[in-house]
Design goal:
The chain is mainly α and about 425 residues long. It folds into two domains: about 325 residues, Up-down Bundle (Fumarase C, Chain A, domain 2); about 90 residues, Ribonucleotide Reductase Protein R1, domain 1. About 65% of the residues lie in helices and about 5% in strands. The strands form three sheets. It has a two-stranded antiparallel ribbon. Strand 3, helix 8 and strand 4 form a beta-alpha-beta unit. Helix 2 packs across helix 6, helix 6 packs parallel to helix 11 and helix 9 packs parallel to helix 11.
Length: about 425
């Protein structure tokens, strides 16, 4: 069974407390690497480990004076450690700590998101199976087209989420890189072996060629994958919103006992969860654009990316998690109305079978253009009656009474063209192909 991570658990990855804990962990691992190389007495490391700590309020007080978060943090730690603090941050630059800790936060967030996507994938797969043979009208341009099944629609969504799982796994691997290479990335006061030791302990890979920072294409990829996930969730949510329209009412998002839909109209059951997802997806896409803007920096680094990342990294990670979890709730609790689907299938008097009639005529030797015009001539009469609100004769009846059509198709051949089973015959093959 897949465990669901709570929203606070994702948020905790991005707290100041967690960030500073990671900074301290990285600094101590660097000291440990110095000891392993014989460049620092083991007794000093032992004393540092026993004393190293920080107080967030004190960090904030120092930062208010020095206007540099890493210096403020190091000063606060030094006050706890005492004279041995001279060994902390030796040969490092701020980005060694910032980028390595950010990689850990992003990697942890990707793991939480992957867990939620796995849960959503499992539920979509189950629902696709359940509604595999639930026939409904397919729509193109919002207009009735030909029959599909609700299971096929859900199977498409399942496949889309499966692709996102692959993308996010890859993005998670591509952001899992740290750097302990010093100013401008030349290891001038460090050895690459120190970086290797630290990254290995943290479950990261060393950035193969760093400047003063880890290059931001990695971070942009992560943000873009989250934006893609958000866009897919919006796509699904908008579909549910359309299917929930009063005149359609084939699917409805959950409506809780005691829930109220409108301050003015007691009858309302609005698709507020799906609308929320559609709105929040815009934020993910905006943050992805900001991530791509961060790829371009001056020379070996500037900090124009830093202020942006303080917003977009936690926000996109937390927001994507919220959206996935909320959509899990929607899919798990959605109401599906097969009878409404059946009624809507029949709403256009058989117009949805027009292609099959046209093809039947072409098999009798008519050109496609001639067959199209014959069927369209009668189809437009049905449309006219629907638009005027009249009870329209079905397309099948009109075609049976069309002398020119009857020259080529007898009544039983016409009737055979209006079979739903014909349209569903290959649905099992699609499900076998995707192994549902």
């Amino acid at each position: 069974m897949i465990e669901r991570y709570s929203l606070p658990e994702m948020s905790s990855i991005w707290t100041d407390e967690q960030k500073y804990r990671l900074w301290l962990k990285i600094e101590l691992l660097v000291c440990e690497a110095f000891v392993r190389r014989g460049e620092m007495p083991a007794a000093v490391l032992k004393r540092i480990r026993s004393r190293a700590d920080f107080n967030i309020k004190r960090v904030e007080e120092i930062e208010a004076e020095v206007h540099h978060d890493v210096i403020a943090f190091l000063t606060a730690v030094a006050e706890k450690v005492g004279p041995d603090s001279v060994w902390i941050h030796r040969g490092l630059t701020s980005s060694d700590i910032l980028d390595t800790s950010l990689a850990l936060q992003m990697k942890a967030s990707a793991d939480v998101l992957l867990n939620s996507l796995a849960m959503l994938s499992r539920i979509l797969k189950s629902k696709a199976r359940k509604y595999k043979n639930t026939v409904m009208i397919g729509r193109t341009h919002g207009i009735h087209a030909e029959p599909v099944t609700f299971g096929l629609k859900l199977a498409r969504w399942w496949q889309e989420i499966e692709r996102h799982r692959v993308r996010l796994r890859n993005a998670g691997k591509n952001i899992a890189f740290g750097k302990i290479s010093g100013a401008v990335g030349t290891y001038s006061n460090l050895s690459p072996e120190i970086e290797k030791h630290v990254c290995n302990k943290l479950g990261l890979a060393p950035e193969p060629v760093s400047s003063q920072i880890v290059e931001r294409d990695r971070h942009a990829e992560y943000l873009n994958v989250l934006a893609l996930i958000g866009s897919s969730l919006e796509n699904f949510a908008v579909e549910i919103r359309h299917l929930q329209k009063t005149e359609v009412l084939e699917v409805e998002e959950p409506f809780a006992r005691g829930q109220k839909g409108s301050s003015a109209m007691p009858h309302k059951r609005n698709p507020i969860l799906c609308e929320r997802i559609a709105g929040l997806a815009r934020l993910l896409r905006g943050n992805a654009v900001a991530g791509m803007e961060n790829v371009t920096l001056w020379h070996e680094r500037d900090i124009s990316h830093s202020s942006v990342e303080r917003v977009v990294m936690p926000d996109s990670s937390i927001l994507a998690h919220y959206m996935i979890e909320k959509f899990i709730d929607i899919i798990s609790g959605m109401h599906v109305y097969p009878e409404r689907m059946k009624a809507n299938l029949e709403k256009t008097g058989g117009l949805i079978f027009s292609q099959r009639i046209m093809l039947a005529l072409t098999r009798k030797g008519l050109t496609r253009e001639r067959a199209y015009r014959l069927v369209q001539r009668q189809a437009m009469k049905v449309w006219a009656d629907i638009q005027s609100g009249k009870t329209a004769p079905s397309l099948e009846k009109l075609l049976e009474n069309d002398a020119e059509v009857r020259k080529h198709l007898n009544p039983s051949e016409i009737k055979a063209c209006f079979s739903l089973e014909y349209y569903m015959r290959n649905v099992p093959a699609v499900f076998r192909r995707i192994k549902i």
